[in-house]
Design brief:
It contains six helices and twelve strands. By secondary structure, it is an alpha/beta fold. The chain has two domains: 2-192, 3-Layer(bba) Sandwich (Glucose Oxidase, domain 1), CATH 3.50.30; 199-235, no CATH class. Strands 1, 2, 4, 6, 8, 11 and 12 form a seven-stranded mixed β-sheet that branches. The protein has a three-stranded parallel β-sheet with strand order 3-5-7. It is elongated.
Length: 237
């Protein structure tokens, strides 16, 4: 796993892209994943102006409709797992928490609010992706991205049921350690094997799109210019 972990400059190159562009790039680098590995239903994003986040998944499951059992997961143990990072050691490598709410009514109680957003930011997480709910929007940690199933007022009986396993959030199946890219549009998993190739693939796509967009925005543009641009973009290497 350590060989797959990106350095800061490589992470920054991915953060410079929005999530739809990353999805486009993956169609080139990983065509077999064209229809898998991303969220497929909408997530609430109360902070759409924040830049994209990139990090390694820390996974957990939670529920809030019923009280925790006596043998429930120790919250501190969960925080230690989050803090450990993908290489298993205390780390500054960015992590994105992906929590699946397994209640029959996901979002009944919010795990995420002022306190947990600040705790997770302190542990090195730039944001969370969950099918559950969030609250305390105005008081959540500054710069902390929130992508959630809904917004609600109460935490009810919220508790972690387990962590470190596979989860499913809004159609995206995630394993602990997966590399995640997310923004206001949703989230996508970037396969480790192609992560370093994504920026170049994105640049290639952007160059092709620029040819078409330039023709479309030119004064007096018509189907003639659009067809010529489409042909030129198809031939672009």
């Amino acid at each position: 796993m350590s060989d797959d972990i990106l350095n800061e400059s490589e992470l920054a190159a991915l953060r410079a892209l929005d999530t739809p562009t990353v999805c486009n790039a993956l169609e080139i680098t990983s065509p077999e994943r064209r229809a898998v590995g991303f969220t497929t239903t909408p997530l609430v994003c109360p902070r759409p102006g924040l830049p994209p986040i990139v990090g390694y998944a820390r996974t957990a499951r939670m529920r809030a409709m019923t009280p925790a059992l006596p043998d429930a997961v120790d919250r501190v143990a969960y925080y230690e797992y989050v803090a450990a990072g993908p290489d298993g050691a205390q780390s500054q490598i960015p992590r994105i928490v992906v929590i699946q709410d397994i209640d029959t009514s996901p979002g009944f109680g919010a795990f995420w609010g002022e306190v947990n957003s600040n705790i997770h930011k302190a542990l090195g997480c730039p944001g969370v992706i969950t099918n559950g709910s969030i609250r305390d929007i105005d008081d959540c940690a500054e710069g902390f991205q929130l992508l959630a199933g809904n917004i609600g007022p109460s935490h009810a009986h919220v508790h972690i049921t387990d962590f470190g396993g596979d989860v499913m959030v809004n159609g995206m199946a995630v394993s602990s350690g997966d590399l995640i890219h997310a923004d206001q549009h949703g989230a996508v998993i970037i396969p480790h094997a192609v992560a370093r190739d994504v920026p170049a693939a994105a640049a290639q796509i952007s160059a092709r799109e620029a040819i078409i967009l330039k023709a479309c925005k030119a004064p007096g543009s018509s189907i003639v210019e659009v067809k010529a641009a489409l042909a030129q973009a198809a031939e672009y290497h």
